[in-house]
Amino acid sequence: MHAVETTDLRKTYGDTKALDGLNLEMERGSVLGVLGPNGAGKTTTVKVLTTLTRPDSGRAFVDGIDVVAEPDKVRARIGLTGQYAAVEERLTGRENLHYVARLFHMPKGEGRARANELLRRFDLLEAADRVAIGYSGGMRRRLDIAMSLIARPAVLFLDEPTTGLDPRSRLAMWGLIEELVAEGTTTFLTTQYLDEAEALADSIVVIDRGQVIARGTADELKDQIGGDRLLITLSDAAAASPAAAVMAAMATATIELPEPGKLLVPIHAGGGIIPQAVRALDHAGCDIANIELRRPSLDDVFLALTGHVAETIEDDPK
C-alpha cells in the first residue's frame, strides 16, 4: 500500500485547470519531492490530499484511505505545514501545541508530555512561554512543524516549508527535515527549488500545469537535461582545444565552447571533481583563470522538459 496515491486527479478554478489528470505514487517511509513553480498545482495537490478541498474528479488516497469518502480518517493520520506558518500569534509556543493536542482529543497529560517533547526536539524550550508574535520566521516555522507532528502522523505534508526564510534559516530547516526523515517520517514535500528537492527527497516528481511531466531521482532528472556542468575559464583562449581534449575523459556529453577561452563541461558532480579537473588541466599545461560548478535550476529543468521556462500563474485563486 502506498502512503499517497492519486489517479487522474482534476481540479478547476474558473478557467484555470489547477490539476489536469495528476497521477503520482509515494512509498511509505520515503520523502517525495514535488517540484514546480508557483501555479504548477503543488498547493492544490496538497489541499486535496489533506482534505482542505475536494477534487472535481479522480481518486486520491492517503495511508490507504480515500480522501473524499473518509476525510475524517485521513485528517487523523496526517500532519500539515503550509506555505505560511499557521501559528496563533496571541498564544505562547507551548499553548499552541496544547491547543493542537486538544483538537486531536489527546488526554491532557499525554498532550502536555508530547508538547514538552517537541519543544525540546525543535529547540524551542527557552521560548516556550513567550507569545508567538515575538518569534522569528525560523522559530515560527519550527513551531508550525512541531504542531503538525503532535499526533505522530502517518504522513507529513510540507508545502514549501522554506518560503520566506533567509538563507541561514533555510539551511536550518533543511537540517530539521533531514532529521525527521532519518527517523522514518514519511514526508510529502513541495518546493520551487531543485537544490532543496535534491537535498531532501528520495524521489522527485516535476509538475507543470497540473500534470506530472517527469519523475525520478535528482541525478536522473539532471541527466535528462545534461546534468551538472563545469564552467572553465582559461588564461589563454588558444588553450581551449587541448583543454577540451583533457576534459573529454570526465565529460558525460559534448563539451561546449560558449565563448573564446571558456569550456562548459557536462559532468556527474561528485566529491573532488573540481580538484580533479584542476590537476588534469595543470598537468596538460592549461592555465586556469577560473573554474566553477554550475547546477541546473528549476528553469533549466522546465526549459528542457517543456520548451518553456517555469511560469508563475495562480493555480488556487482565493
Ordered list of secondary-structure elements with their pairings:
Elements: E1 4-13, E2 16-26, E3 31-35, H1 42-49, E4 57-62, E5 65-66, H2 71-75, E6 78-81, H3 93-103, H4 108-121, H5 137-148, E7 155-159, H6 167-182, E8 187-191, H7 194-200, E9 203-208, E10 211-216, H8 218-224, E11 228-234, H9 240-247, E12 262-267, H10 273-283, E13 288-294, H11 298-306
Parallel strand pairs: 3-8, 3-9, 6-7, 7-8
Antiparallel strand pairs: 1-2, 1-4, 4-5, 9-10, 11-12, 11-13
Helix pairs in contact: 3-4, 3-5, 5-6
Keyphrases for this structure?
alpha/beta, Alpha-Beta Plaits, 2 domains, 4-stranded antiparallel beta sheet, 13 strands
Q: Overview of this structure, please?
A:
The protein contains eleven helices and 13 strands. The protein folds into two domains: 4-87 and 135-222, Rossmann fold, CATH 3.40.50.300; 226-295, Alpha-Beta Plaits (2-Layer Sandwich), CATH 3.30.70. It is globular, with a radius of gyration of 23 Å. Helix 3 runs parallel beside helix 5 (137-148) and helix 5 runs parallel beside helix 6 (167-182). The protein has a six-stranded mixed beta sheet, sandwiched between helices. Strands 2-1-4-5 form a four-stranded antiparallel beta sheet. It has 318 residues and is an alpha/beta fold. The protein has helices at 42-49, 71-75, 93-103, 108-121, 137-148, 167-182, 194-200, 218-224, 240-247, 273-283, 298-306, and strands at 4-13, 16-26, 31-35, 57-62, 65-66, 78-81, 155-159, 187-191, 203-208, 211-216, 228-234, 262-267, 288-294.
CATH superfamily of the largest domain: P-loop containing nucleotide triphosphate hydrolases
Total domains: 2
Helix and strand run: EEEHEEHEHHHEHEHEEHEHEHEH
The total of helices stands at 11
